[in-house]
Amino acid sequence: MIRYMTAGESHGKCLTAVAEGLPAGLKISEDYINRDLSRRQYSFGRGERLQYIEKDQAKILSGVRWGETIGSPVSLSIENKDWENWGKIMSLSEEDKADKFCLTRPRPGHADLTGVLKFNRHDTRDILERASARETAARTAVGSLCRRLLEEMDIKIYSFVTEIGKIKAKTKGLSHEEAFDLAEKSQLRCPDKHAEGQMIKAIQEAKANGDTLGGVYTVVVTGCPVGLGSHTHWDLKLDGLLAQAILSVQANKGVTIGRGFDVARAKGSEVHDEIFYESGRGFFRKTNNAGGIEGGMTNGEDIVIHAAVKPLASLRRPLKSVNIKTKAEMTAEIVRSDVCPVASAAIVGEAVTATVIANSFKQKFGGDSVKEMRDNFLRYIDYLKKY
Ligand code: EPS
Fold first, then answer.
1. Which residue in 97, 184, 263, 280 has a CA-CA distance of 20 to 30 Å to 74?
2. By the 8 A CB rule, do 239 and 229 touch?
3. CA 46 to ligand 1 center in whole angstroms
4. What is the pLDDT of residue 204?
5. Nearest CA to ligand 1 atom 13
6. pLDDT for residue 255
7. 371-382 b/e with 16+ CB inside 10 Å = b?
8. What average pLDDT does this structure show over 33-50?
9. Is there an atom of ligand 1 within 6 Å of 263 CB?
10. Does 124 have pLDDT greater than 80?
């Protein structure tokens, strides 16, 4: 099994992660991880912290020697450069505790109110620091380790943004790879230049109005063999695991696979991907409405995931709320935040997808070393060819 944990607050000293179960012999460097951290960090619509203050860099603390994993847990840290400005507010020491630092006006749509009630806290900062999407930097770093492993198996993960607010990109006619190449050059990960211009305008407008915008992104996985996941039990079904991973990303509120909700409005004959066979190529489909997953298992086609991100709850023009201390009606707290994080969320979507696919790969093929895992995988591919 490949599993991981993260720790760290948004304005605390650092984020940390421990990933366990990666096979030995995987070539990895901090530079490789930092590439994904930077892809996540910089996009149009993020706040000033990310544009001017922070430059995320991962430090590998354990589990790697001479450029390769050695089979032990890989631990990582990402320092919060902004920590210096938060020393007293995020201090470990009781002596620094002061009422003036406490936030008491919960933001509708955020974890603030439910969190303070549940954990019996009286400062919403105790909740929002961990609920913050800052934590996704740690998940991106772990996703990078998993992506590196999947590369060894010729599995690739892409993402692009298709909607911001009410604006939709046109992606018809583009292959997933083409959409991805265009997205990599776009500050909003949008493959449609015209739509990107409109999206930027919409974000600027939202910012001027003290508002926020959500959107939709797509994650695509290519190169998965038939048979990752399983139909045999609810917690082994790959679509369920992917949906859980995506919905666990801050502000992600919806996920569909393949044609998504649209299949509910179509007839069965219009939805299901007919099966063909050619010797040398094996079984294949001419359509991919299922998004690469049937019965909770990969069917050999590309996995296609769509995720909906809600507009963030931190508004410069805040909504009505109630002070948790005085119980007086007032507007919610105004805290520094992003106007539109959808392009960054897409990179986090890639990362959590990588962790799920890497784990299901390890469950199917095992292997304590990359070589053993790859040999097992190739033997299976050989079996499929002869089937
Ligand atoms: C966030 C608010 C902003 C974002 C942050 C998530 O942080 P700050 O209040 O320090 O400006 O920039 O995201 C990150 C720092 C990140 O790395 O993604 C929030 O309230 O969730």
1. 184
2. yes
3. 8
4. 97
5. 134
6. 98
7. eebbeebeeeee
8. 92
9. no
10. yes
Q: How far is the CA of 298 from the centre of ligand 1 (A)?
A: 35
Query: CA torsion, points 72, 78, 84, 90, in degrees to nearest 10?
Result: -70
Q: Is the CB of 50 under 6 A from ligand 1?
A: yes
**Binding site membership of 241 for ligand 1 (Cβ less than 6 Å):** no
CA 34–ligand 1 middle distance (angstroms): 18
Structure letter (DSSP) for residue 73 = P
Q: Is the pLDDT of residue 373 over 80?
A: yes
Q: What are the boundaries of each domain within the chain? A: 94-386
* Residue 32 CB-density burial (10 A; 0-12 exposed, 13-18 middle, 19+ buried): middle
In the numeric block, the tokens 């507010």 are attached to 89
Q: What is the pLDDT of residues 242-299, one digit of tens each?
A: 999 999 999 999 999 999 999 999 999 999 999 999 988 899 999 999 999 999 999 9
Q: Give the tens place of pLDDT for each residue, 327-349.
A: 999 999 999 899 999 999 999 99
Q: How far away, in angstroms, is 337 Cα from ligand 1 center?
A: 5
Kindly provide the residue ranges of all beta strands, DSSP E only, lying in 108-212, ordered along the sequence.
Answer: 156-164, 167-168
H or E segment to which residue 277 belongs: strand 275-278
- Ligand 1, residue 335: give the atom nearest the CA: 9
For the Cβ of 43 lying below 6 angstroms from any atom of ligand 1, the answer is no
pTM of the model: 0.97
Task: Output the pLDDT for position 210.
Answer: 97
The CATH superfamily of 94-386 is Chorismate synthase AroC (3.60.150.10)
Ligand 1 neighbourhood includes 132 CB (under 6 angstroms): yes
Q: How far is the CA of 77 from the centre of ligand 1 (A)?
A: 17
pLDDT digits over 1-19, tens only? 999 999 999 999 999 999 9
Pocket of ligand 1 contains residue 49 by CB under 6 Å: yes
**Predicted local confidence at residue 143, as pLDDT:** 98
Of 249, 338, 339, 348, best ligand 1 pocket probe by most atoms within 8 Å of the beta carbon: 338
| Ligand 1, atom 17, residue with closest C-alpha | 134
Q: Nearest 10 degrees: CA dihedral of 77, 75, 138, 374?
A: 140
Cβ atoms of 215 and 202 closer than 8 Å:
no
Which single residue is written with the structure tokens 């962790």? 355
